[in-house]
Structure formats: structure tokens, C-alpha cells
């Protein structure tokens, strides 16, 4: 188990990585799934043998409220059907922490429940916010879970210029679920999970 990293350089590196993903040209992405709430694309990840996913959709609400529902905190567990528990293990400041969370089984439990320990950081980006994270090898692995690993992930949320009550939410996710899994099952689950994330989030913001 690694010691906790120094948060400032890790946060800076993480932000720079996400901004670089955000500048990848449209031609490099392939559509993986399209719903009324979001479009999901993917491209081979530079970090591991799976895919980097990009999800994008317009959400009717202000940027701060949307990000408060996504980042670690009391809202997330209420609406995210995939997340089954979340504990803040360390807090560096109000926008930077280490959290441990667990996810439900997926695809008729072909994908068993997973546990993640992530460094999370929220910062300003243009007129909006970026909330991002990366997994750490920290804390004891609980025997009833497979420990997954999130390579640099994040959500950019910026207000629409011509419609300030709406925001453009763009996510970059690359999750290594680990364990013995057929890659096709992982790819199916990831695309559907990201599309469902938008519909679940929209419902939560309306309540």
C-alpha cells in the first residue's frame, strides 16, 4: 500500500491531463452509444489496454449545482444507482479529498461489485468547473470486493452561453475494472453506465 501523495502536484497533473483529453479532436473518437440525454464516444486509452470514454450532454441546471451532485459528497449516493457506498478517507481542503466507494454488480452480476479508492479534486475551468479523480493504491482491500482502478477521469461542466440555466456536461472516464472479465462485457457496461448517468442525474436535479 502506497502512502498518500502530496495533493498539490497530483491535482495539477490531473487537471492538465483532463484539459489535454478535452482538446482531443473529434476525428479520434468513435460513437459507442447515443441516447436522448447523452452521446458516448470512445478511443483507445493511453493509460491501459481498454478505452477512454467521452460522454456529453446538456443538463438543465446551473454549473455549481450539477457539480455538487457529481463530486464526493452527500448528493452522489442519493441518485447514482451504480454507487452503493462512499466514505471520505482524507480531506486536504474543501475541494480535494481521498474517497473510498463501492459499486453494484452489473450485467446480471457478470461484473461483480467493485471497490475504488480515488483522489478527487474540483477546480474552476473557463466559466464553469472541472471535477476530476484518479485511483490510488491506498487502504486495505476488503475481501468481498475486487479493487478497480480509475485512470485519470473527470467532468467538465460549463454554462451554455445562450442559455445560462443550462450547462454542457462532458465526462472522460477510463476505468480498469480488473478481475477476470471479458472485455466485450466491460465495453457494453461502460457505454450504458455513462448514458444512464445523465438520465439519473437529470432526474435528481429536478427533485
Automatic annotation (TrEMBL):
It comes from the Eukaryota. One of its GO terms (molecular function) is cholesterol transfer activity. PROSITE patterns: START. GO terms for biological process: cholesterol import; cholesterol transport involved in cholesterol storage; intracellular cholesterol transport. Residues 10-207 form the START domain. GO terms for cellular component: cytosol; endoplasmic reticulum. This is STAR4 protein. It comes from Rhipidura dahli.
